[in-house]
Design goal:
about 325 residues; alpha/beta; eight-stranded mixed beta sheet; 12 helices
Length: about 325
């Protein structure tokens, strides 16, 4: 892999799900991912944000091999991993790991934490039992848990501790890229802060690259270097995080930023507020998928689907009217 090439490159990725009636007859298609393209550089934290149902989790699971893409390419460390299976897929999984939204459900309730940490090492490495146990203790300490937790079961841990165990489990294999799916969802604010600080310290200690999936823009602002905004299976804007928060160009991105709460009132990027519900994912509108909720929509928006195009530097936007509207400022 070239020194300048991204660690992860996604090209025109599609993941469609069939819609069937009670008789099993296919009646439509949900385009969960539709021509998604982006790159992630080694060592950065790349954020994916958007409303529930926009395709964030489907993207993470497709990159991790849990879902198979219908089209497009996933290049990891320069190799196409789009349709790997068996031993080839397992070899990649050591270096590209996915952490589920609910780490408690990802842990076998019948296994102790020690066995859960040992299982990936026994499957993917040739380490002796003693060496596996030593690595498990080392990784558990790295995520801030005492060795005594090796003998506990998942139900004996708090939500924050379960997330730490989830991190420890994937770190045992020393991955390069970690996909974090809503890593702070369901946690108290104080526990969220602790988990986020832990993620930052682990990234430095283990030289990790993060794909950070979240609906919480405040967390994304704190954690990410760049961010992609998704809407109904497509990326509508990509920008360095500071630039997106200071000068978002896509109307959907502006609406998300306008909804960020702050002490003393609402953070307003402009006068635009998001209204209505997203269209049916199985019956998408023509042209721009956001046009039915956008107060700036023009005839061209229903006639042609906008493409993700450079606007300024590393800033890309998929909007016919982005140049006319100009960047919104906080």
């Amino acid at each position: 892999m070239s020194a300048t090439a991204p660690l992860l490159r996604v090209e025109m990725l599609r993941r469609h799900f069939p819609v069937r009636n009670v008789l099993g007859v296919r009646t439509g298609t949900i385009k969960a991912l539709d021509d998604v393209t982006f790159g992630v550089r080694a060592g950065e934290t790349f954020g994916i944000v958007g409303e529930s149902g926009c395709g964030k989790t489907t993207l993470g699971k497709t990159l991790a091999g849990i879902h198979k893409p219908n089209a497009g390419r996933i290049l990891f460390e320069g190799d196409d991993i789009s349709n790997l299976q068996g031993a080839a897929r397992a070899a990649v999984s050591q270096r590209l790991q996915y952490i589920h939204q609910d780490p408690g459900n990802a842990l076998d309730p019948r296994w102790t934490i020690g066995r859960s940490l040992d299982e990936p090492l026994a499957t993917h490495t040739s380490l002796s039992r003693a060496d596996r146990a030593a690595r498990s203790r080392e990784i558990l300490a790295a995520v801030g848990l005492p060795a005594e937790h090796l003998y506990l079961y998942p139900h004996e841990l708090s939500g924050g501790q379960q997330r730490r165990v989830g991190l420890a489990r994937i770190l045992t294999l020393k991955p390069r890229l970690v996909i974090l799916d809503e890593p702070t969802s369901g946690l108290d604010v104080s526990i969220q802060a602790t988990v986020l600080k832990l993620l930052q310290s682990l990234q430095k200690a283990f030289d990790l690259t993060y794909l950070f999936i979240s609906h919480d823009l405040s967390v994304v602002h704190l954690m990410c270097d760049r961010v992609a905004v998704m809407y109904l299976g497509q990326i509508v804007e990509i920008a360095p995080v500071a630039e997106l928060f200071a000068a978002a160009r896509h109307p959907y991105s502006r609406s998300l930023l306008a909804a960020i709460p702050r002490i003393g009132g609402r953070r307003i990027t402009d006068t635009f507020a998001l209204e209505g519900e997203p269209p049916d994912a199985g019956n998408l509108p023509s042209g721009c998928r956001f046009r039915s909720r956008c107060p700036h929509a023009a005839p061209i928006c229903s006639e042609h689907e906008p493409q993700l195009e450079p606007k300024a530097g590393a800033h890309k936007t998929a909007c016919h009217l982005a140049d006319r509207l100009g960047p919104a400022t906080a």
